[in-house]
Amino acid sequence: RSALPSPTFVARRIHSAGGKWANVAADAFAPVKCPLYGANTQVVSKDTPATLRAAHDGEYLYLELAMDCVTSNLLNSSNIMSHDCWELVMARQQGQPYRHFFSAPDGRMKAASFGEVNWRANVPAAESGHESFRATCETANTPTRWTTRYVFPLAEACSGGIAPGEKLYFNGVAVLSRTIVPDPAIAGRYAILSYCSMTSVHTTDRTCVITLEN
């Protein structure tokens, strides 16, 4: 498992967008096609082709996760973290400490830290002094495409912040109902899909790597 290659991406350097996706030029950086893997496996989901886009302007990280699905089937739960949702891990290294972001199909978002405050798990962002770490989330869905766009201040995307030229250890995990992913090859009551193979929710010893372009 540890010998398997991890997905690597480059966050392109773009002109300042002031922390707003609306200010990012549509052709500033292209989406990268990515497989999504069933939890803790190398089984690729055939139902949900996905892409990832990443860029930064020296102050903010702009991250877009998108997958094909019937968006009218997406469910919004009151606590976000049931289903359907994205869970993002962001860290300066593999393992703790890391920051965990949760977002719903309607754009609501929560954040927590793990191992950052006296090695405690699931510390709410407000309690740790980072009100949602000032991250924002928006959706740009079509009937067949679920698109979620995030903006993270580089100083708060992970514990200690991240700077141009450095590496961000990241994973995006989707927890989805069976109406979204009926593929029987993806085991479990819910379908858990990840950008990094052989991982699941809260897996941090194996992640994708995003290098911030100088």
Molecular structure report:
With 214 residues, the chain is an all-beta fold. Helix content is 0%, strand content 37%. It has no helices and 14 strands. The chain has strands at residues 8-13, 32-34, 37-38, 50-56, 60-68, 85-91, 98-103, 109-114, 123-124, 136-139, 145-153, 167-176, 191-194, 208-212. Strands 1, 2, 3, 4, 5, 6, 7, 8, 9, 10, 11, 12, 13 and 14 form a 14-stranded mixed sheet that branches. A hairpin with a 6-residue loop joins strand 6 and strand 7. The chain starts with 7 loop residues before the first strand and ends with a strand. The mean pLDDT is 92.
Structure summary, number of beta strands = 14
* Poorly predicted runs of 5 or more residues: none
Shape: globular
Protein structure class:
mainly beta
- The DSSP helix count reads 0
- SSE topology string: EEEEEEEEEEEEEE
Over all CA atoms, what is the radius of gyration? 16 Å
**Share of residues in helices:** under 10%
Major sheet summary line: 14 strands, mixed
